[in-house]
Amino acid sequence: KMKLNIALLAGDGIGPEVIDQAVKVCDAIAKKYHHDINWKPALTGAAAIDAVGEPYPDETHEICANADAVLFGAIGHPRFDNDPSAKVRPEQGLLKMRQKLGLFANVRPTFTFPSLIDKSPLKRDRIEGTDLIILRELTGGIYFGERGRKDDGNTAYDTMTYKRFEIERLAKKGFDMAMKRSKKLCCVDKANVLESSRLWRETVQGMEKDYPEVEVTYEFIDAVAMRLIQWPKGYDVIITANLFGDILTDEASVIAGSMGLMPSSSVGSKVSLYEPIHGSYPQAAGKDIANPLATVLSAAMLFEDMNMTEEAEEIRRVVNKSLAEGYVTEDLADGGKSYKTSEVGDWLASNI
Amino acid sequence: KMKLNIALLAGDGIGPEVIDQAVKVCDAIAKKYHHDINWKPALTGAAAIDAVGEPYPDETHEICANADAVLFGAIGHPRFDNDPSAKVRPEQGLLKMRQKLGLFANVRPTFTFPSLIDKSPLKRDRIEGTDLIILRELTGGIYFGERGRKDDGNTAYDTMTYKRFEIERLAKKGFDMAMKRSKKLCCVDKANVLESSRLWRETVQGMEKDYPEVEVTYEFIDAVAMRLIQWPKGYDVIITANLFGDILTDEASVIAGSMGLMPSSSVGSKVSLYEPIHGSYPQAAGKDIANPLATVLSAAMLFEDMNMTEEAEEIRRVVNKSLAEGYVTEDLADGGKSYKTSEVGDWLASNI
Ligand SMILES: CC(C)[C@H](C(=O)O)[C@@H](O)C(=O)O
Ligand SMILES: CC(C)[C@H](C(=O)O)[C@@H](O)C(=O)O
């Protein structure tokens, strides 16, 4: 019997809807396995800006920092995207949260679902059996470097900065993961142009001797953007910088056929955070049509990391069951019968 | 009857082999249409480093700057890639060449070949009829910003800088192209994080009023990395920054099923340059197995830009004929009969 305090950050757009379903599923798990989950809801994103003028309020940070884990929906709102002059943006909250919680590694597994493999835009033989993990650096790089304007606003700049220790701690996670898997690690960078990429390469090369069993390769981001689609099975663990990881992880989601399925965790030295890789999808907000599975599978990753393996497996089992039986939202229904977000959540919970 | 001076930069790896075939094809065109092509070979890349210690020697620049066009192979050599301490790199030559020749826009069309559509890792219905152009900014951004090390080499940084005029001149080309096509322009950036992207968005938004017929959309690079694979037919003209364009153009090449087919041009205020989008592919160098079609089709773009439309069409016709008749290199042969690089070149030339 475990007692878990989980911070619950629903966020914007479809965030609250998908989070609701994950809560139902976790509560069903808690009931079945006699755990006690104490949900701690907190504001973030555009919702927090509207309420308190800040996308990641201190109060929210306190709740997250003191929780055993954070379950996160999505943030972002279109009214900020096309307004270059907006001073406070929902995404700043996300970045501040990552930084203040020290979530330096974003872990995004990419795999296929047997029952959904034909939904992928990619041919079956290219993707069947794909099982790779992208480890994206999450608290450094161009996301956190100095940026600004010069020349009366006519010049804008952003700085991609990496320190050796930032690369080392991310790479260490990558090597450790590779050791538990196929012992293949690929460092993705742009070392033929960028100095920060050359520091990545140099640092990872220096660590190779500590992991003599791991086969390390170095590839350029442009080549990987291509090869990841051509032959995803060629990859096992990929480590990469923040911006490159942002691009590659979204790209990798097409392999599974749907962003609506892919979970992620963000880990650091303290608490870890679990979130679907999709965004706030504002067009669908409030319509009860969003696919909750990525968030539900993120909760499975949470249990997994808490060494509650059976609980994690139970969630994956019920998700696979819903896919196999076609109890899915419209994005997966192929024009056939589909169910509401909330109906899928209820179904999953009642099948646990 | 035209008299053309074309600078010929074979470069490294398979560069010389594929360039040779393009020369054969162009010479056959010149003969058929009674033109006079004066080839001006010049050194570049690792080949130039070995010869004169410089990847883009002044002499090469003189030849390019005074030519009517530049035909370029590929540069890059693996002995530099894994040596973070190398002071002179072949790629610097490429970047210096782009900058000194003022080649601020890289034009990369993405289309499918009817006879090759099943070679793509993507399903036929997703890609059939794809016809998009990525316009990549080529002389600015993080490729040319200040970079270096600090803290005894333990911190490395690169700067992504954009000036309004750089964005404007690239966007203008994008708007003009869109006007000649489906009047759809997509600006790809990361404006939810980067200040330079916000300047892109602001600048392009400011130009919309001059092109009231063009429908402009703004999308994030991570989303486009996904959607480009999911539904390439959703795009017409894409404009984007140097680094994002590097990634997206290589990624887009999987749509056609092979990098070995995709041509590109780099245009500026003075001379233009034509090159295949593939790299120097060192593993294949000297083996007479590389696919020369991307370079041959780049020569077709060259004629097109010189308003020699018939000549360009003739090259495309003969390339399509070679594909239809299976007179192809091994990468396209699907285990069937294949031909050498030089044989394909000879065949193309003799069919003109
Ligand atoms: C919303 C945005 C700032 C964010 C990012 O770029 O990191 C998102 O794309 C993600 O990947 O979590
Ligand atoms: C070789 C490299 C520097 C170059 C680039 O990144 O621009 C290449 O990838 C390209 O796209 O032409």
Automatic annotation (TrEMBL), chains A, B:
Q: Which residues bind substrate?
A: 98, 108, 136, 222
A biological process from GO: L-leucine biosynthetic process
Q: Where is this site: Important for catalysis?
A: 143, 190
Please give the cofactor(s) recorded in the UniProt entry for this protein: Mg(2+); Mn(2+)
Q: In which pathway does it act?
A: Amino-acid biosynthesis; L-leucine biosynthesis; L-leucine from 3-methyl-2-oxobutanoate: step 3/4
GO terms (molecular function) for this protein are: 3-isopropylmalate dehydrogenase activity; magnesium ion binding; NAD binding
The Gene Ontology CC terms held by the record are: cytosol
Q: What is its EC number?
A: 1.1.1.85
Does the entry feature the keyword Oxidoreductase, yes or no? yes
Keyword terms, alphabetized: Amino-acid biosynthesis, Branched-chain amino acid biosynthesis, Cytoplasm, Leucine biosynthesis, Magnesium, Manganese, Metal-binding, NAD, Oxidoreductase
Listed name of the protein: 3-isopropylmalate dehydrogenase
Encoding gene, per UniProt annotation: leuB
